[in-house]
Amino acid sequence: MTTFIQTEEQQKKDFKYSVMDGVFWTIMTYLGAVFLTPYLLSLGANSFQIGLTTYVPTLIASIICFFSYDFLKYFNSKRSFVVFFVIIQATLWIPLAFVYFFATGSTAVWFVLIIYFLISIIGTIPGPVYGDWIGKVFKIKEIGLYNARRNIICNLVTILPLFFAGSILDAASHSNTLFIFTIIFIFAGIFRFISAMSLNKMSITETKEEIKHETHQSKGLMLNAFRDEIKNNKNYVYFFVVVLFYYFSLYVTAPYNRFYLLEIAKLSYTQYISIEIVAILGVILTLFYWGTAVDKFGATRVLKATIFFLPLYPLTLILFSKNFYVLISLVFIDAVLTAGLGIALTSYLYQNIRKNLIAHMTFLTLFQSIALTLGALSAAGINYLLTKNLGSETRALFWVFIIGIGLRFISAILSQGLKDNNPEKTNVLKEIIVFKPIIYGGGKLMQIWGEKQKEITHNVGQRTKKIQLHLKKTTKQIKGDFSLTAKKFGKELNDTTEEIIHTTKKAIKRTKKFLDKKDDF
């Protein structure tokens, strides 16, 4: 039984450091994920090699996650376990940044891929333990809003470094591009180090003895806990099926999204980064709505509503990739809906599976990794065969995207079979159609901005009053000290004057006496 008891003040402190971790982790992730594709392309990578980055590390890491408890027992807490792997991940960005200095061509591409695989794998290993730790640090009933608030801040902060890096790359010549990539990836490592420092300041939720008990007990019970849930909870089984098909359909096209934008749509770096930033803004603008909706209506209902729009992104790419303004508008809408889907998937286990979270997260990670790998490999095979038969990878990818769109529609239909036991009758799909997430989210952000402005004004006023009181007190003290010093100086001056007068009188008397004696002589 855990001995962890948390005060409100402690939770505020934990949220602050959780946000700091999230901010620097998000910057690292975006700098890595967004700029890795153009980096590999500049080194001569092909679409298959770029696709590998989206599923190979996830699959390997999900298998390693089974040994989380074997690793965890050597640590004093779940916090130290997570921080250890974060530091290793941060360090690995340094060799990735300098690959092109000692390798060229295909060798350089494979070096980058191997190091990036390690970065991704090391970052994924503590995932289940991190999820269980965060579930104890924050209140489960507010987990949706917690995820929303954290993600808003994290995504907002990433916009400037992304735009700055993209603009520099666009302005640079080809010879300088690789050097700029080196700087970008070094900063990715630095930001992850700062993330580790923030995590290390959060609460420890268990003792070393509790870790030993939990790892000893859970190692043998992970499979049993998962198996029992599968046997007794048919809705959970169906959720598993929906999630697996979702990831399979998602990764039929996902490995080629950035390749398509850069190599087929021929977007500039600035346009490419602009699309990423617009997607971030779509997430930021609506996360408050999704967080509130997940807590109020339940993760299941939000999942069922948002997954209907899953085919939008690949459809946008193949129809509007040549019209930048239409493309960017539809990417924004897709980001709004994907934000809701992401929060619903993240919150489902917290809301529906209250115990043995590490076990369930480990198995979910493994199976979703297998699903997305199968999806990506199927797409790679189809792309290879169609390119060979059609003589053009552009035409081949068109049909890959068409297949992916069809599979996403099937995933959306399957999701409607999930049971929703929430008593609220609100139709989330209808709210999406009337742009409620954007209106609510935008209004909430404006409200928070206004409250923040008032808070800042109040704090400035309070500090001004404190400064005025301090100055008044200091002035009074100075006046008092000056008056006291003046009195002391006056007394000393008066005493000195009296002493001088007394000494002078004595000298006059002695002189007079001396002169009288001289006259007698």
Description:
- The chain has one domain: Growth Hormone, Chain: A (Up-down Bundle).
- The chain is 85% helix and 0% strand.
- It has helices spanning 8-42, 47-64, 68-72, 78-97, 99-102, 105-124, 127-137, 143-171, 174-199, 208-232, 234-253, 257-264, 269-297, 299-306, 312-320, 324-352, 357-390, 393-415, 428-433, 436-520.
Topology summary:
Elements: H1 8-42, H2 47-64, H3 68-72, H4 78-97, H5 99-102, H6 105-124, H7 127-137, H8 143-171, H9 174-199, H10 208-232, H11 234-253, H12 257-264, H13 269-297, H14 299-306, H15 312-320, H16 324-352, H17 357-390, H18 393-415, H19 428-433, H20 436-520
Helix pairs in contact: 1-8, 1-9, 2-6, 2-17, 4-6, 4-7, 4-9, 7-17, 8-13, 8-16, 10-17, 11-17, 11-18, 13-14, 13-16, 13-20, 14-16, 15-16, 15-18, 17-18
